[in-house]
What we know:
Helix content: 25-40%
Number of domains: 3
Radius of gyration: 22 Å
Shape: globular
Strand content: 25-35%
Low-confidence stretches: none
Bound molecules: methylmalonyl-coenzyme A, adenosine monophosphate
Amino acid sequence: xxxxxxxxxxxxxxxxxxxxxxxxxxxxxxxxxxxxxxxxxxxxxxxxxxxxxxxxxxxxxxxxxxxxxxxxxxxxxxxxxxxxxxxxxxxxxxxxxxxxxxxxxxxxxxxxxxxxxxxxxxxxxxxxxxxxxxxxxxxxxxxxxxxxxxxxxxxxxxxxxxxxxxxxxxxxxxxxxxxxxxxxxxxxxxxxxxxxxxxxxxxxxxxxxxxxxxxxxxxxxxxxxxxxxxxxxxxxxxxxxxxxxxxxxxxxxxxxxxxxxxxxxxxxxxxxxxxxxxxxxxxxxxxxxxxxxxxxxxxxxxxxxxxxxxxxxxxxxxxxxxxxxxxxxxxxxxxxxxxxxxxxxxxxxxxxxxxxxxxxxxxxxxxxxxxxxxxxxxxxxxxxxxxxxxxxxxxxxxxxxxxxxxxxxxxxxxxxxxxxxxxxxxxxxxxxxxxxxxxxxxxxxxxxxxxxxxxxxxxxxxxxxxxx
Length: 468
Ligand code: MCA
Ligand code: AMP
């Protein structure tokens, strides 16, 4: 199966078709650099990639795909504990990074390979097995360390092709975004999507309003925090009027932000919904002229959904009944890496994936996501963060005796990670910095509240409902 046909197609040599932060590449250059790297890593069981938003990361990912070696993107600011976990758990045999960041990985325990976007290779490789893992992405659950989600080439191709249809995405588009390259949104949609469709790509490095305005694209991707910051800069927002489609996802787009975006740009954003485990499963269509804010649209081609109650019984699509959303289809993963227990818990006996999201389905088939079943999965700035992982990191500080973490409502981030702790002789800033250095910085609490004791029930479990 050929996942990225545009790398060998007729547009292969358009100079600067791919701009990633401060570097421009043609598709031909990318194909040659990735081929050179693929020859170096061929045969590895998996490779980790220091996933900065750079051309090196794109070359590394495409090199892995060419060689048929699963690619494991590592958040570039992960602390030592998180990195070690991802390297060990994934079985990555090599770490790929830019020459200038080799030193960061000096003690990582696996050989480091420098990625050179100027390298020229011409080796060809057999087409990858569609059912083999192309990527292994790490994602948070409510407790414990992040779990590996193997994503096959077949799932990626099916998802991108369904999005191409829904968004009328073509090689004539210029895709613009500035999202991180270690999650589905920025990497699968934002990089592999451009490479599969053959559209031009501008990765802005960071997703600022000014950079989005300056990029002059037709198709823009952002998480709600990005769209809210775009609206806070009306001059930049107005420059997006010439785009074809603005797409929002990874978290709920607040209605006032959707309204501001429409006023400033003339575009009603397309909202779509997905998960690391399922890729994108629901989306509004580019040609839905009556799409409504707050709706994430209908299932993509090949995807089925259902709503169920707490007893597992099916619920009606009547526009009012709230139930847990289940999904099925070729885009859904088949299980967490090395975690049969977590995999079994994630699927129903009849093969549906339990998203853990609560939804309402309109009679028209349009879905609205209304919340999560568990308060222990937090969405902050579009990042999914498990409360348990942050609590464990806090408990690793010698001054902390008890910790409970919540996502409190936040106008900018959607939810703000807030830690309630019982601790002596430590400041809020020290604890925030402690978590930021143990885990990726986006998992750090934005506020720490000191308490004499945490409210607990008769079983000794923290009553989080009493904390907020
Ligand atoms: C600040 N920083 C710190 C500290 N405080 N570093 C260490 N210790 C501290 N105490 C640093 C940060 O590391 C960062 O550095 C800089 O300050 C700004 O950090 P922060 O404030 O966290 O960033 P932000 O400006 O609030 O970020 C907002 C954001 C970001 C840009 C919207 O949240 C983001 O990129 N979100 C996208 C998430 C995403 O792609 N999710 C998709 C998941 P530096 O400058 O070095 O960075 S996939 C998914 O959900 C599904 C499939 C789907 O539906 O898409
Ligand atoms: P992740 O696995 O990090 O991609 O996070 C997946 C979660 O993001 C889902 O389970 C939802 O809770 C949330 N999510 C993604 N897209 C949307 C959306 N458009 N509206 C509301 N929540 C969303």
